[in-house]
Amino acid sequence: MSSIVIVGAQWGDEGKGKITNGLASNANMVVRFQGGSNAGHTVDVNGEPVVFHLLPSGISVQGVLCVIGPGVVVDPLGLVEEIDGVRSRGIEVGENFLIDVGAHMVMPYHRAVEAAEEESRGGSAIGTTRKGIGPAYSDRYSREGLPIGMLASFGEFEERLRAIAARKNEILTRLHGAEPLDIDAIVDDMRRAADRLVPHLADTPDLVREAVASGSNVIFEGAQGTLLDISFGTYPYVTSSHTSAAGVAPGTGVPPSMVGEVLGVAKAYITRVGAGPFPTELPDGEGETIRDRGQEYGATTGRPRRCGWLDIVALRYAIGVSGMDRLIITKLDVLDAFETIPICVRYRIDGVETDRFPRSAVELSRAEPVYEEMPGWQADTTAARRHDDLPPEAMAYLRRIEELTGVPVAAASVGAAAHAVVQFAEIL
Ligand code: IMP
Question: How far is CA 229 from CA 181, 219, 266, 359, in A?
Answer without folding.
Answer: 31, 20, 15, 12
